Amino acid sequence: MQYDTVIHGGTVVTPYETFRADVGIAEGRIAAVAERLNGGERRIDAGGRLVLPGGIEAHCHIAQESSSGVMTADDYYSGSVSAAFGGNSCFVPFAAQHRGQSIADVIATYDGRAAPNSVIDYSYHLIISDPTPAVLEELPGVFQRGITSFKVFMTYDLMNIGDGGMLDILTVAKTHGALTMVHAENNEMVKWMNRRFAAAGLTAPKYHALSRPELAEEEAINRAVSLAKLVDAALFIVHVSTRGGAAIVRREKLAGTKLFAETCPQYLALTRSDLDRPGMEGAKYICSPPLRDQETQEALWQHIRSGTFESVSSDHAPYRADASGKFLNGMDAPYPKIANGMPGIAMRLPYLFSEGVAKGRITLGDFVKLSSSNAARVFGLDRKGSIAPGFDADIAIWNPEETRKVTLDMQHDNMDYTPFEGNEITGWPELVMNRGRIVVEKGTLKGQAGDGRFVARKPVDTGAMPGHRAVEFKIAAEFGQEIAP
Ligand code: DUC
Ligand code: ZN
Ligand code: ZN
What we know:
The protein is α/β, with parallel strands linked by helices. It contains 13 helices and 18 strands. The site of dihydropyrimidine-2,4(1H,3H)-dione has 9 residues, from loops.
């Protein structure tokens, strides 16, 4: 067998095994994993290193306008470069519909943004903010194209589609095997809190965290799960930030509900006290759902360890701390008018490795699942997320011993700050490969704009999850009326 590349002498990690092996790569695919492989036009020495599936970043905002018109600082070039420096070989940003737009226009717009620019493979999750009958009719075509996940919001007036809108989308998604993702926060609770804070003149960034209560997330997760169960559709709860929210996910998984979830490094690394900084500095830490507290961090780590979450995603939402981003509405804008989100696509995996693996909270196998394999399975990237013959040669070689202090220039993004500045991190990716091409090697970018390809994804894999049958549909069927979706 002729290999283009052989990675030799490293320790290969899959979700279930850690073993010494060489990896042979031919035509962008993994051709062999064996104790010793000779040959290879290029041989990469991975002695003392870990050979992992490349990270799959399944939650990030790239070249995306928010509903209030703020453009992210990262486009598909800088976003993909930053992702690659952080150990990722594939990412799935959002293609966001704003009200009045057709889905065909949205996808065409994002194709124009991504195809010429991405240095790594990509797909999109479609955000739907306007589920009109015409839009619902477009969804099967999007699904056919390999965009098999749709995200909806339960908060933000310009995005919230209401419970009925959610049921419509869940039903279309169920029919086609698509996965509905949801931002779960109770809109009315948040707006009510905002009015109370505004009336009291409390508009500094630190009040943002208080204005979006834990109960707002918990209530919305419960409701989202109930809506999905009514029509027995698969659901993915994004950015779970609370103990109560994680406990609901846990409970429902035990019951067999077709449910998936993620949390994010910022909810493990930071707390609401990070918003309490002089002047407007706290605006850098405004994200939704907001940062919580140390007890929450500990609970989220327990849920990560015990399998409540499929993935830990960055929710990279890069808005610069200037008039192009956070402060589009003025340098002293009240917190509800400051863009929500923080950067972190390059830090997701080093942070998870350092705080998770290096500190003994999770195993290497857990790391592989949380960083890559589970996202591949849930989001239908069937040739990615493992190191085995036939899979894409999407590989990250990590040095588990290297310790570095985080700086902004290590992020390789378009941002003017990183919330992880100064963190001491042990374990860094040294080489990232996408379909056999080296994208990043020893701190140098080797990939080029446009190298990444759109990946058509498969339907969601709900595996052996039994799901839920609403008894009312069954009874209606007994009356001779088939109304189940
Ligand atoms: N939700 C996200 O997923 N990211 C940024 C802001 C938000 O509300
Ligand atoms: Zn969200
Ligand atoms: Zn997000």
